[in-house]
Amino acid sequence: MERRRTLLLVLAAVLLCASAAHGFMFHLPSAAERCFTQEIPSNTEVKITYSSDEAYGDFLDCTITNTDGAQIFLQMGKDEGVFAEHIANGGEYTICLTSRQSPKSTKSVRNILLLVQIGADAKDYDKIATKNKLRPMEVQMRVMEDTVAEVHNEFIYLKSREVEMRNTNEHMTTMVMWLSIGLIFLFAIFSYLQLRHLKRYFKKKRMID
Question: Transmembrane residues, as ranges (predicted)?
């Protein structure tokens, strides 16, 4: 039992090294829009942060839409913002940032930093420790537990996606099979009608009996 617990802690420590935070910087010209998609597992905490340098005469808008295309976050005219939510339904979420011009625009290019944190990385453990009066060791254990739970949730999500993809592939295979059968049937009918037409033509020309 003790050995199993030790192995679990080692595994959790290794998992902590595999961060679920994705951050990058990109350039956004004036009057342009850039969109990114992020695959998010079900029942997962998510924190999306963006910040930009100032661009005189331009306004920065940010929208986030879920897998159904519904808008779940909108912030207009601010150079920085934070979206933090618990995502119940996993899938591809779309993040769009738009540099909106005004009549006084200098048409400058923005430098934008976008940070996406998923699962344990999206939680503020300092606040959790203060709220629950946790000791440093208890905080570390909480991080490990959340990381293991995150991996488990992601595994379940990937399994469900695998089933969806398999069902889709099977459906497409069935459609292709029936389409092939239909084409063969139509080709057979066309060949029969063509032969019948040629036979009548040759009889009319008295080339065959």
Answer: 175-195
76 in helix, strand or coil?
coil
Whole-angstrom Cα distance, residue 205 to residue 209? 10
Q: Are 7 and 86 in contact (CB under 8 A)?
A: no
What are the tens digits of pLDDT across the range 84-100?
Answer: 999 988 889 999 999 99
pTM over 0.85: no
| SS3 state of residue 155 | helix
Query: What residues contact 179, with CB distance under 8 A and at least 6 apart?
Result: none
* Rg of the Cα atoms in the chain: 29
Residues in CB range of 21: below 8 A, 6 or more apart: 115, 116, 117, 118, 121
Mean model confidence pLDDT for the chain: 83
CA distances from 81 to 48, 54, 97, 188 (A): 8, 14, 11, 64
Phi, psi angle pair for 95, to nearest 5° = -115, 120
Q: What secondary structure letter does DSSP report for 52?
A: E
- The CA–CA distances, whole Å, from 71 to 32, 66, 94, 106, 127 equal 20, 7, 9, 30, 29
pLDDT (tens digit, 9 = 90+) per residue, 132-176? Answer: 777 888 777 877 887 777 777 778 878 887 888 888 888 899 999
Report the DSSP beta bridge partners of residue 23: 115
C-alpha to C-alpha distances, 156 to 151, 152, 167, 169, 185, nearest whole angstrom: 9, 6, 17, 20, 44
